[in-house]
Each structure stands twice: as structure tokens, then as C-alpha cells.
């Protein structure tokens, strides 16, 4: 359940920061009359995200009759979730310093157009996070517990609620945290979560008959990592680390986690400042000894 809590916290905080920037800009610009349009756009984005999550669940449980079709559907959504996670963490690392200015610029343009533009702009700013959250949550919940129980949903709600509280305190300047370090640590954890989701997706592809090697185990450490113990359940729920994975599952896990983690933690290269060339006229003249 920690994985789904982390997803709710990370995605929720991104959305909360976006809304906080929009609200703070309107308040400082003395345009409080446009706040209802912002909240309307945010509310529509949240409602559509919930509907999208319900549609994914309904498709998996009601529209797909054969177990092979359900396994294939879960595998495809798992791969899509991994793509979204990867894109999201790298985009946030790149855009964290400029997102506030970009949002203010877009909101200024929307204010000049009218109330519908303001609502549409706030809707578009939040809907991406909501759709990502729904897709990633579904895949993480399936990977952790096969979608059973209310635990993953409660963990997601808890993560979102925590993000709302943090965002409100940041808006009121009652809390100051290093967002760069926060997104770095949560991004690294989400890479491990995404690796587990990809491993689960490969397993579903194997069960659906799309990929071979379901019974070709990479190793079996059930005697050491007993699946019935709490720590085994914790590792499986967080990162889908199991005692007897197939060869393809482990290859997928390692092939994704290692290079993506290295690229994510590597500091971006800072361009070297050009050194001005010294012309011959500016060069110091050597001292001439006197006769």
C-alpha cells in the first residue's frame, strides 16, 4: 500500500502546487472574481479523472469475460503506466524551476479571453495529473494485490489528502520544504515502483500467452523470502519483488530500473561559461628593462 500512497502523494502534490500557483496569482493580481472559474476547472478535472479510473476498472472486471483478455488488458495498462511514470518524473525534474512562470503566463492570457478560458486553463493544468494518477494507481494496485480489497484505494486517498495539506501549508507559508529534494527522492522510489509494475506487466503478458517462459524461473528463494511473511508482502506490495520470478520478469525489471535510475540521479551537465578571448591589443605589455 505504500506504493499507492506514494503515487497519491507525488501526483497530488504536483496538482496541488499547480492550483496553488493559479490561486496565488489571482489573489495577488486582485482578480478574486475569477477564482470560481479556477475551482470549476479543477472540479471537472477531478471528476473526469475519477470517471477514467472507474472506466478502467469496469473494463477489466465487467467487459472482459476471458481471463486471457483481462491479463492482456492489465499488461497493456501496466506498460502505459510505466511510460507515464517515466515521462512524469523526468518532466518534473526539468520543469520544476519554470512551471510557475509558465502557468502565470498562460493564466494571464486566459484572463484576457474570458471566464471560460480561465476554467479551461485550470482544467488542462490539473487533468494530466488526474489521468496519470488513475492509470498508475490501477496498475500499481493490480501489481501489489491483484486489485483485491480497499487497502490500495485508501492508501491513494491518504496520499492525496496528505498532498493537499502540504500544498495548503506551502500556500500559507506555514511550511517550507525543499521541493527539489522531495521530487528527487520520490522520483527515485517511483522508478522502483514502475520497475515492479513493468515486471507485473511482463508476467501478465506471459499468462496471456503473448510472451513465453512463464515457468522458466530466474531463481527461487521461497525458503529465504517466505511469501506469507510481512516483509515479503511489503516488498511485493511496494516494488513487486517476489521469491520466484521468471527470467523475463527479472530481465525487464533490471533493464528498466538500472538505466532509468542512473539517468534520473545523474546531475544535468551545466554548460561551461565561455571565456572571452584575449586580443593582442588587450594583452599585457611585457616590461622593458631600462638601459
Please, could you describe this protein's structure?
With 291 residues, the protein is mainly alpha-helical. It is 72% helix and 0% strand. It contains 9 helices and no strands. The protein has helices spanning 2-28, 35-63, 67-95, 99-113, 115-145, 151-171, 179-207, 230-239, 247-265. Helix 1 (2-28) runs antiparallel to helix 5 (115-145), helix 3 runs antiparallel to helix 7 and helix 5 (115-145) packs antiparallel against helix 8.
Mean pLDDT metric: 81
The description of the largest β-sheet is: none
- The H/E string reads HHHHHHHHH
The total count of helices amounts to 9
| Strand count | 0
Helicity, in percent? Answer: over 70%
Distance between the termini: 88 Å
Q: Low-confidence runs (pLDDT<50, min 5 residues)?
A: 277-291
Rg from alpha-carbon coordinates: 25 Å
User: What class would the helix/strand composition place it in?
Assistant: mainly alpha
The global form is elongated
Strand content: under 5%
Index terms:
mainly alpha, elongated, 291 residues, disordered C terminus, 72% helix
Lay out the secondary structure:
Layout: H1 2-28, H2 35-63, H3 67-95, H4 99-113, H5 115-145, H6 151-171, H7 179-207, H8 230-239, H9 247-265
Short description:
By secondary structure, the protein is an all-alpha fold.
